[in-house]
Amino acid sequence: MPYKQLGYRENLKNSAQIEQTSSLIQLNLKIIGDYMMVSEVKHTCIIIDDMKSHQFLLSQMVEICGLEVIGVGENGKVAIELFQNLKPDIVFLDMRMPKYDGFFAIDGINKIDDSAKIVAVTADTTSDTFGKLNSLHIPVLSKPYTMETLQKIVDEELVQN
């Protein structure tokens, strides 16, 4: 079929249709964008570690995983306070900290909410620690960890929600 050149009136008609279609597309994109903003819930977390460098690194990594860090602390006592005040979706908890360790925090957090999502972050590879965490059904993110391992644990914890 050969190309047909349109006349002036047909070009005006097509131009009006294009403008109308463009307006409808823009309106639909705005509605979709507004819906996504309302329905896109970002999960929250707190990070508890006595080393500032570990707090910073894990904060950066969980944000890449799509979590919002709403609190950071340095021991188990602070973990309990932050959990009670902020109600995060997930707690990333170092197990070996001076004064109030991770097990102190787990006990206190479970008294507040026995279905709390807690991820133990530790370099402690002893069978005693792993045994205790396993009996409490707490997943372990072993130091040093990778983005892939972190993302897998985050996904598993949020799917159970």
Automatic annotation (TrEMBL):
Cross-referenced InterPro entries: CheY-like_superfamily, Sig_transdc_resp-reg_receiver, ST_Response_Regulator
UniProt domain Response regulatory: residue ranges: 44-158
Organism (species): Nitrosopumilus adriaticus
Record Pfam families: Response_reg
Gene Ontology biological process terms, A to Z: phosphorelay signal transduction system
Protein origin, superkingdom: Archaea
Lineage: Archaea, Nitrososphaerota, Nitrososphaeria, Nitrosopumilales, Nitrosopumilaceae
Protein name: Response regulator receiver protein (Modular protein)
